[in-house]
Design goal:
This protein is α+β, with helices and mostly antiparallel strands. About 30% of the residues are buried. The chain is built from four helices and seven strands; from the N terminus they run E-E-E-E-E-H-E-E-H-H-H. The strands form two sheets. Strands 3-4-5-7-6 form a five-stranded antiparallel beta sheet. A two-stranded antiparallel sheet has the order 1-2. About 35% of the residues lie in helices and about 15% in strands. Helix 1 crosses helix 4.
């Protein structure tokens, strides 16, 4: 049996227990792998406190959230050789937010990955970006293994696949954190 990633702590994304999908935590935020990533490396960063709007967060939470986004970006840039990122926040249900919990989509991008037709914004607003629906499907066991495909072909990943990715990203974040600490001492 493997040791839980955060012993004695349960982390929620809205009403969903996502503890095993989390790969990084800070005093106010966490980063988790995505059930149905739009592109390889697509993750979410969210405050620990469940709040639906950015304006509901304290200055400390807001600052920590975006500092965490940039920390995660650095690791994803190295791992996925990203040329750029989409950082998206759907701030409230009318903006397409499907889980009533602030979250930033962090999506590594490569030159030419959209094959001339960039659909990320369309995906975020449509069925493909409905994180709440996807998370509910996981909890009910209604999912199949899938790889990045056209938007209509994307399938939810298994918990095992997401936990494996979370472990890998956790190790890589710790590695980058150790390198930053060493660099900061110089």
């Amino acid at each position: 049996m493997t040791m839980p990633p955060f012993p004695g702590r349960t982390i929620h994304f809205g009403s969903f227990n996502v503890t095993s999908q989390v790969f990084h935590t800070t005093p106010h935020s966490f980063a988790l792998v995505n059930l149905k990533p739009l592109l390889p490396g697509h993750v979410l960063v969210s405050p620990l406190r469940v709040k639906p709007f950015l304006s509901d967060l304290s200055h400390e939470e807001l600052s920590d959230l975006f500092l965490t986004v940039t920390r995660v970006q650095k690791t994803l840039k190295r791992l996925y050789k990203a040329d750029a990122f989409n950082i998206a926040v759907q701030d409230g249900e009318a903006a397409g937010q499907s889980v009533k919990h602030v979250h930033c989509h962090v999506i590594p991008r490569l030159k030419g990955d959209a094959e001339g037709e960039d659909k990320v914004h369309e995906w975020l607003e449509g069925e493909e970006g409905d994180v709440g629906k996807h998370q509910s499907e996981v909890e009910r066991g209604e999912r199949k293994v899938g790889e990045w495909a056209k938007d209509e072909e994307r399938k939810p990943r298994t918990m095992e696949v997401m936990e494996k990715e979370a472990r890998w990203l956790r190790e890589e974040m710790e590695r980058d954190s150790g390198e930053q600490t060493s660099t900061e001492r110089l």
